[in-house]
Amino acid sequence: MKRTLIKELTTTINEEGQQIYGWVHNIRDKGKIAFLEVRDRTSPIQVVIDNPEGKTLDIKKYDIVSFTGTPTTSGVKSGIPGVEFQATDHQVLTSPKEDYPLPISTKAQNNPDQEFNHRVLSVRNPKNNALFKIQADIAKHFSEYMRSEGFTQIFSPKIVPQIAEGGANMFKIDYFGRDAFLAQSPQLYKQIMVGSGLERVFEIGPVFRAEKHNTSRHINEYISLDMEMGFIDSYTELMDLEESMMQYILGKINEEHGDEIQQYFKTSINVPKETPRLALNEGIDIIKSKYGYKNREEGDIDPKAERLLTKYAQEEHGSDFIFITNYPTKKRPFYTMPTPGNPEITEGFDLIYRGLEITTGGQRIHDYEQLLSNLRIFGLTDKGLEKYLDAFKYGMPPHGGMGIGLERTTAKALGLDNIKYASLFPRDVKRLEP
Amino acid sequence: MKRTLIKELTTTINEEGQQIYGWVHNIRDKGKIAFLEVRDRTSPIQVVIDNPEGKTLDIKKYDIVSFTGTPTTSGVKSGIPGVEFQATDHQVLTSPKEDYPLPISTKAQNNPDQEFNHRVLSVRNPKNNALFKIQADIAKHFSEYMRSEGFTQIFSPKIVPQIAEGGANMFKIDYFGRDAFLAQSPQLYKQIMVGSGLERVFEIGPVFRAEKHNTSRHINEYISLDMEMGFIDSYTELMDLEESMMQYILGKINEEHGDEIQQYFKTSINVPKETPRLALNEGIDIIKSKYGYKNREEGDIDPKAERLLTKYAQEEHGSDFIFITNYPTKKRPFYTMPTPGNPEITEGFDLIYRGLEITTGGQRIHDYEQLLSNLRIFGLTDKGLEKYLDAFKYGMPPHGGMGIGLERTTAKALGLDNIKYASLFPRDVKRLEP
Description:
The structure is a homodimer of 434-residue chains.
Chain A: E1 18-29, E2 33-39, E3 44-50, E4 64-73, E5 83-94, H1 112-117, H2 119-122, H3 126-148, E6 152-153, E7 159-160, E8 172-175, E9 178-182, H4 187-198, E10 200-208, E11 221-230, H5 236-265, E12 277-279, H6 280-291, H7 303-317, E13 321-325, E14 338-339, E15 342-346, E16 348-353, E17 356-364, H8 368-377, H9 386-393, E18 399-405, H10 406-413
Parallel strand pairs in A: 3-5, 6-10, 12-13
Antiparallel strand pairs in A: 1-2, 1-4, 2-3, 4-5, 7-9, 8-9, 10-11, 11-18, 13-16, 14-15, 16-17, 17-18
Helix pairs in contact in A: 3-5, 6-7
């Protein structure tokens, strides 16, 4: 017998012998009749079991059951309003062996450990179920936008050799007796691929940071939406691209999931028309003069200052996003393009979304001699970078790119106060399971 | 000035002041006129530079150049046939500092080390450039097919805890002083997510195998196209799905890239109508009786037998694909569903494509007690599997899935004799760079 998805039952009203599958989430057993809330991946529905002889119902809450019967119109308001399923037969496929350790309720206030220890149950919560469908769609719309702009998806290696720069924040692997590391970014590979003639590349993949921070803003393995493009004149083109891309992605998410976001997350997506852009120094001055707050991080923005810059962007520009540009050279990686005529600052930017940095990007150095000279300025050697540097020796076009944190973007779009909630199986200093 | 892509020049014929960017791949300098072959990511074109005063041309082969000028109609046959670009001005953006160590030619016979050591150059070869665009499209069409069938994309962790089963073929990591491993498959996570109510999930991500084989069929890090689905009646549904999916993916690749595949790879995609299915024993018998070859691997198929099964599928069924089913239980992982009534064999399959296994799949055990009992039969404990087993304790629907190797699929579709060619930066026992 072919399965009918619950959501499709509205198209087969009164047709007998339909089969549905799902989890039983609620049972009201009235003796001669029982009303069950059954959910599959598409929708909940009310299932009615007539039981004129008053036999003991052999279905328990959270059983996984196959029902045969007929969808009918009804006055029911829950599940699919106006439709219920009259079951004539059923078969219990699986029963829980133990009571659930946490409730499957959108109102549940579980602590993070409960959520993450029991992912099979916590994702059953319609709120989390929606969360991860939205996250999948953010990745999908990112890919679509990238492809529409002529980018090719690449898959760069996550096991990488030791480089002079690396090690401090990288996880070490034993690679057949040699030291290797987990990539903290696809940076060097995506740059090489610009030079390979592909010109525009993107990647969606895990990156790994062996940082000991254990905060609501950090996870040690996350999904990075990376892109890199050749033939740019300035890093402002990258900001233009990200601005358009965020409009596209969040516009789509709003169209497709706006109601769920309102219902489950009590927030709404504010699709940015124009994103304000401030140089780092300007930003620091504004939050000092406007909010009396002195930024505490030398050459960067501390978490409170990030939140105040968002407050400024929202109040003055009606935008949940703000670009901060021109970070000092010494705070950015060696491949970052210094500003011509002012090499103390860089041709790059961060994007802050609702109080949290979600993107770092910028123009890169493309001239071989300049890159070698910058390596020396940074006190680095070319150890492990030989093949990367070759790409520049053979000629690289002017280029730049960015990396966007998927979990951070998802968390901020949905108003979550901890990005770990936006990771199916988060990894932090203490958490390696499940 | 706004850039025009070379491919788009056909729509702006005779419009002055266009700007194109690209790599100069060939120069015929006739003194008062020079003809250059210039390539951007979209196409090559012939660029003409009039030089009535006979000045020395300041462009060298493989320079990256910006040209300003006018596209005109012409009798030219190369590049964009019928169109050339009359350059009035140009600016060299970057020059190679050294001669290229390998030729950029579709006829080049580079050895694998040359290819992989110089990826920025070897991917410039139009053949490799096409290869990686096709690979990106295989991943794209896989995603699209999955989504159209109601699957949600997930991102499971690549850093995983030690489990009793694992370790032998897994890379070990130092995770903040604890032993951790790189995931050799998203298996356990995708199964949990079926139980989370998402029901149908897919993932595109790296997997890591610490196997010491160094053959044309193995790499130690590869991209796995994974899927898992709930509420199946039998593993034959999974084969049905993969059959339809391969028709979809390869049909699209054929439509979009058939000409390039013919031109560069001298092969063509044979979109399967129906894929033959043989039990392992039947397959072994057939190649013995038909080709006189005795399979050498106990309970599995050796590489030569894989090639002969393909020969059989091609000769008898006109198919480049063949499913082999019912592998013995002892050769499959502990979570594999044994055949009811015949627990020595399993409800699973491999898919062989042009002589190489590209997929392993099957139905999984969903009953908690049966899974615990199977762990014992396999001599395993639940160490590190506690959270995985919880998913079954709380009730899992009948389910199954598969994993498809992206590099293997790409290599076979294009007739490559080594799957490493289908990896941008392959990792093998000896190769960790670039």
